[in-house]
UniProtKB/TrEMBL annotation:
<protein>
    <recommendedName>
        <fullName>Lipoprotein</fullName>
    </recommendedName>
</protein>
Length: 203
């Protein structure tokens, strides 16, 4: 009976335990640059998390991270796009043209560490760029127009964090918790370094 109780306590601890805190590895920014944000496109490349190793948990992690970043943007209008390896069209370019954001926050995995075939940790890179979208005359076809997109890098940071797929018990709630934790860590860091400011409050 004693062993059974200990086992039950151990299982409960695994189920309710939070993920380890994500860690900032390195970052850089354009000197003196503060992005004056009118609207923001958050583009999450979840290609690595669409791998069969993740099963359906990969999409849960990606969605939780992206939605957390979107919800932490405050008064800034945000569009969120998530992509995976199976998509044939450039959804990010389509979103840039349709929403005409003043900034893009791109997120993609630099590496994924696995043990015994299970991904346990991912290194994410976050890039923020100022973006300008305008319509210009098509040089090769007078009378027609094309969209010109120009960008300038503002900030980059790399973070390492757990996938919550390494434990004995993997649950949807735990994986989503890890995704939210990564999103919150990124949002907190952006506030700390003051890399983005809503355009309405910039003087």
């Amino acid at each position: 009976m004693k062993h059974a109780k200990l086992f039950a306590v151990s299982v409960a601890a695994i189920l309710i335990a939070g993920c380890a805190q994500p860690e900032i590895l390195q970052e850089s920014r354009a000197p003196g640059e503060v992005a004056k944000v009118r609207s923001l496109l958050i583009a999450v490349d979840g290609s690595a998390f669409s791998n069969a190793q993740f099963g359906h948990y990969g999409r849960l992690y990606i969605n939780a991270m992206g939605e957390t970043l979107r919800d932490s943007a405050g008064s800034i209008p945000v569009s969120l796009v998530t992509t995976d390896a199976m998509q044939l069209q450039d959804e990010i370019a389509k979103a840039v043209i349709s929403t005409k954001p003043s900034q893009i926050m791109r997120l993609h995995t630099v590496s994924v560490t696995s043990t015994r075939g299970r991904p346990i940790e991912a290194v994410w890179q976050v890039d923020i760029t100022n973006v300008s979208v305008r319509t210009i005359d098509a040089a090769s076809d007078p009378g027609k127009f094309q969209t010109q997109i120009t960008s300038r890098a503002v900030y980059r940071v790399q973070l390492s964090g757990p996938t919550c797929l390494a434990g004995l018990i993997t649950t949807e709630a735990r994986v989503e918790s890890c995704g939210r934790e990564m999103g919150n860590t990124i949002a907190s860091r952006l506030r700390t370094v003051h890399v983005m400011t809503p355009e309405s409050v910039v003087r």
